[in-house]
Amino acid sequence: MFNNLSDKLDKAFHVLKGHGKITEVNVAETLKEVRRALLDADVNFKIAKEFTKRVKEKAIGQDVLTTLNPGQLMVKLVKDELTELMGGETVGINLGGSPTVILMSGLQGSGKTTFSGKLANYLKTKKTKQVLLVGCDVYRPAAINQLQVVGEQIGVEVYAEVGNNNPVEISQNAIKYAKANGKNVVIIDTAGRLAVDDEMMTEISNIHKAIEPQETLFVVDSMTGQDAVNTAKAFNDILNFDGVILTKLDGDTRGGAALSIKSVVNKPIKFIGTGEKMEAIDVFHPDRMAERILG
Ligand code: GDP
């Protein structure tokens, strides 16, 4: 995960980690390299610039050059700042409501259906919840089939209405069904498009208004870098969602989405997807991720 970024940051700290006297010039050079590493990871220019500015201010504030081990302190300052950049705290999902209604949003191919299954499985096994998965992609019968396959695999019931092409109605009916059948979590998988368009936004917004979910999650493919951030912004403007799900972190992703999304939409990353299997889901911990990046 983020191997390229880790390597570049490691190289950036090379001089500071060496012996010999460390000067202000060394620190400035290191920060420049850190900024370059962030830009290479597809972090937005402004975010990268502000990042190094904050680290520099802290380094000056803590009189880094006079400390016993300036190299170690600089690594710590960068690690703390990376943690902050990714949201600081771990934020869980709201399981209130009866039933808890969770709405999935995002583009087609981002991993919504897969993640809906993973989350259902997670809630079922870790939180002993009775989960209902709901297929609301009325345009692609294959999407409903895919959800049904996932449901069978994890032993979770799937609600779908063949022939009904009104996703608002389907989700409302599904919630009624859940109440009548002892389900306390309803996960609604919605239709995505290949790019943001008005029709999709109106549809998801209508579902959102009609069912007032406890959690609205935005699912995004971490491989898409700055596009991921722009899409997040477009969905957040419409839905004011509660959290981000970053998928495909097992791939060769550069890290830009993970590092930028929080500061752009000011919403926490709640879970990550690390593979195609139902078990490949992790709660997102900004501090552990920063630790991982800095090795
Ligand atoms: P949707 O269109 O948003 O519902 O996306 P899907 O759930 O169908 O996922 C699109 C593709 O991405 C599928 O082939 C999934 O197996 C794959 N996928 C989803 N999440 C992950 C992940 O975390 N890692 C990897 N490697 N593949 C994933």
UniProtKB/TrEMBL annotation:
Residues 268-281 form the SRP54-type proteins GTP-binding domain. One of its GO terms (cellular component) is signal recognition particle. Keywords: Coiled coil, Cytoplasm, GTP-binding, Hydrolase, Nucleotide-binding, Ribonucleoprotein, RNA-binding, Signal recognition particle. Transmembrane segments: none annotated. It catalyses: GTP + H2O = GDP + phosphate + H(+). Belongs to the GTP-binding SRP family. SRP54 subfamily. Part of the signal recognition particle protein translocation system, which is composed of SRP and FtsY. This is Signal recognition particle protein. It comes from Urechidicola croceus. The chain holds residues 1 to 295 of 443 of the full protein.
